């Protein structure tokens, strides 16, 4: 059982993503003194917005370059930039030309969802580097940048993701196991109250169904009644299938 959730949490069941290199070429041949800080702020803004999937490597060899992963070249286009990324990109472009090069495919990470209509699951199996939102139909990651979330909304989603992963690691490692399992499985725990509140807010803002997936360590258990309102849960066929309460914005993997 532990192997199942460890593998899912580490993304071992996912598909591939792309690796890219972005070169920052000074227009004056030298670059400003604060070049490194400005580049770092820009890359962090892309990371927070889900355009970069994990920690980037910043290289300095006469000029700066960064290597990072993304779902596709499309998601690095300025059209997907958040307000923060727009600001930092504009500041960089005053002094730098940006050159983007695809390095190739990187295995063991998620492809992006391409469904025209979808509902969203705040997935408890995505790791810190991938989007915490997946399509309820195809099961693939939904890049945060496609949702045009505000800076506050992005921060809340990222905070829930980091909190969940921290508690999940405690449970996997057998540390504070009873407390960690209660946080993961009890819909009234602080962790799950945070997730459900975010799911309801996103549902209202995005105009689509968004559910927070409640962790269940028993893979053979099926949840027929909502643990919050007591109403029958609806089975939604997808990858994976989910038992859903749309009113309470929660679901369990079936």
Describe the structure.
With 254 residues, this protein is an alpha+beta fold. The chain folds into 2 domains: 2-10 and 111-253, no CATH class; 17-106, Alpha-Beta Plaits, CATH 3.30.70.100. It is built from 6 helices and 10 strands, in the order αβαββαβββαααββββ. The chain has helices at residues 2-9, 35-48, 83-93, 151-172, 177-185, 190-206; strands at 17-26, 57-61, 63-70, 96-106, 120-122, 133-135, 210-213, 234-236, 242-245, 250-253. The protein has a 6-stranded mixed beta sheet with strand order 6-5-7-10-9-8. The chain has a 4-stranded antiparallel beta sheet with strand order 2-3-1-4, with helices on one face. Helix 4 (151-172) packs antiparallel against helix 6 (190-206).
- Work out the helix count: 6
Average pLDDT works out at 86
The ordered H/E elements are HEHEEHEEEHHHEEEE
Describe the largest sheet: 6 strands, mixed
Strands, count: 10
Radius of gyration equals 20 Å
**How helix-rich are the residues, as a percent range?**
25-40%
Major β-sheet strand ordering: 6-5-7-10-9-8
Structural domain tally: 2
Distance between the termini: 15 Å
Low-confidence stretches: 1-15
- Helix and strand content put the structural class at alpha+beta
Choose one word for the global shape.
Answer: elongated
Percent of residues in beta strands: 15-25%
């Amino acid at each position: 059982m532990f192997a199942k959730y460890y593998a899912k949490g580490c993304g071992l069941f996912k598909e591939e993503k792309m690796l890219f290199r972005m070169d920052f070429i000074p227009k004056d041949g030298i670059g400003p003194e604060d070049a490194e800080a400005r580049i770092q702020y820009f890359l962090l803004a892309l990371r927070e917005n889900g355009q970069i999937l994990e920690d980037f490597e910043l290289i300095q060899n006469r000029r700066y370059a960064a290597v990072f992963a993304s779902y596709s070249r499309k998601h690095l286009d300025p059209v997907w930039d958040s307000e923060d990324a727009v600001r930092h990109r504009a500041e960089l472009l005053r002094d730098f030309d940006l050159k983007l090069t695809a390095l190739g495919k990187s295995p063991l990470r998620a492809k992006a969802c391409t469904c025209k209509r979808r509902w969203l699951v705040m997935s408890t199996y995505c790791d810190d580097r991938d989007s915490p939102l997946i399509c309820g139909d195809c099961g693939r990651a939904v890049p945060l940048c496609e949702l045009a979330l505000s800076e506050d909304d992005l921060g809340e989603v990222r905070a829930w993701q980091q909190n969940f992963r921290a508690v999940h690691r405690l449970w996997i490692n057998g540390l504070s196991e009873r407390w960690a399992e209660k946080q993961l499985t009890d819909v009234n725990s602080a962790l799950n109250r945070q997730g459900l509140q975010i799911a309801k807010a996103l549902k209202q803002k995005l105009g689509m169904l968004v559910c927070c997936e409640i962790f269940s360590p028993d893979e053979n258990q099926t949840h027929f009644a909502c643990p919050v309102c007591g109403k029958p849960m609806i089975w939604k066929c997808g990858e994976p299938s989910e038992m859903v309460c749309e009113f309470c914005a929660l679901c369990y993997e079936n």
